[in-house]
Amino acid sequence: MSFWTTRPTPILGLAPMDGVTDAAFRWMIATYGSPDVIFTEFTSVIDVCRGPEFLLSTFRFDERERPIVAQIYGKDPALFYQAAHVVGALGFDGLDINMGCPSKNVAASGSGAGLIRTPDLAHELMRAARQGLRDWAGGQSLEAVGLKSSRADLIRRMNVARGGEPDPVRRELPLSVKTRLGYDSVIIESWAEHLLEEHPAALTVHGRTLEQMYRGQADWEAISRVARLTRGTSTRLLGNGDVMTVSDAFEKIERWGVDGVLIGRGTLGHPGWFDHRAASRPAEAQVPVEAGNRPGPRAVTPMVAKIDHQFRLMMDHARRFEEVFDSKVFPRMRKHLAWYCKGFPLAAKLRAEMMRVCNAADVERLIAAYWAGYVEPEAQSHSPSHAHAHAHAQAEAEATSSIQDNPHIASLTCGSF
Ligand SMILES: Cc1cc2nc3c(=O)[nH]c(=O)nc-3n(C[C@H](O)[C@H](O)[C@H](O)COP(=O)(O)O)c2cc1C
């Protein structure tokens, strides 16, 4: 039995996000909370089977992230068959096929959400992937399905680096699919019926069509129509789209009858999102503040505690990123740093500075400089200084602005996804 059946519902999981849910961010999510499932970034089946070694780094993970599902995309059944072997050999807990990516590069070539227009091919891919998972579980070697022995060696090295056995225990992994409501119109009922013929262990539906990209609100009423189709079947239905808070997640699960939700953008800058038990406590109460260990103000006001909490997360994340990845790619960490800087005085200025850092030491220096110039907002509001009044207003505006208003997120969502 797979984790999809043994996990109690409702399921709250981390959605796959290309360029975001990398090994360092997933480690943060698993360290600061307990999601029921975590998805990797999507990875092309070509890269999984034949790409250069560094492209398989999207599939690095830590044991604490379990259950962890590898997401793949493409349109060639033979490659899905091979990729399923790789995913099995890497010790994942599940394999997910992306049928929802709206990016031109992906969908226009017939992969991702492009598959909504070719349901027969979608079936074929699911069958090929499932057969691959089955044959791998049955003992078939990677070399026997045409993968190079250097790829098999790389996989063993990745497993050992994670602290595991070179060859994980063979078991048939569950297959799942993540998709959208349709291509240019909502056809989710007929589309979901097609997908359900293959009995996926889980189906995630993002409540928008490809054409909508990220515009408007996710249509949860349409998602609930799929919930009616999956009720009484072995498929878990996960709704997805615009869930920002834990209470919102539970409210949507209850109202729309889904088995769970995947959360994407709501987790940016909030690795503690899945700490459900502590979610009702204010963020600043979650990490004890020891003034003696922190440069800057001695008085631990609620604002100081909040900023200190964010800075600790930033440092932890930046150091983990350095442990996992080559220092040359540290710029990929900058957007995360910017997401942590929200809702406190002069956060916008700090965000801009974070966009230039090259390593964790740079981040530490910026944090120290921030504390050195820190003035408590209450003190500022009594000051006649224009700059101080501005800082106060800015902190308030940042704390209340919605996630969609955040330019860093807006630019991301207008990009590949
Ligand atoms: C930056 C970014 C990258 C994404 N990458 C993927 C991906 O690799 N695979 C996928 O299935 N969905 C991807 N998505 C879509 C999300 O998984 C999710 O469906 C979408 O963001 C809606 O959920 P949310 O409102 O909780 O963010 C991505 C979204 C964003 C914002």
Account of the protein in words:
There is one protein chain. This protein has 417 residues and is of the alpha/beta class. It has 2 domains: 3-274, TIM Barrel; 281-409, no CATH class. It contains 17 helices and 8 strands. The chain has helices at 3-6, 23-32, 45-50, 77-89, 104-107, 119-137, 149-161, 188-196, 220-230, 246-256, 302-324, 334-340, 347-354, 360-372, 377-382, 386-400, 407-413; strands at 11-14, 37-44, 68-73, 94-99, 175-180, 202-206, 236-240, 260-263. An 8-stranded parallel barrel has the order 1-2-3-4-5-6-7-8, surrounded by 6 helices. Helix 2 crosses helix 11 (302-324). The protein is globular. Bound molecules: flavin mononucleotide.
The name of the CATH topology of the largest domain is TIM Barrel
CATH class of the largest domain: Alpha Beta
> Mean pLDDT across all residues, rounded?
89
Bound molecules: flavin mononucleotide
In percent, how helical is the residue content? 40-55%
Q: For the terminal residues, how far apart are their CA atoms?
A: 33 Å
Instruction: Determine the CATH superfamily of the largest domain.
Output: Aldolase class I
What's the Cα radius of gyration? Answer: 22 Å
H/E order of the elements?
HEHEHEHEHHHEHEHEHEHHHHHHH
CATH architecture of the largest domain: Alpha-Beta Barrel
Largest sheet: 8 strands, parallel, barrel
* Number of E-type strands: 8
Share of residues in strands:
5-15%
Based on secondary structure, the structural category is: alpha/beta
Spatial sequence of strands, sheet with the most strands: 1-2-3-4-5-6-7-8
Low-confidence stretches: 280-289, 381-393, 395-416
Global morphology: globular
Number of domains: 2
> Number of helical runs?
17
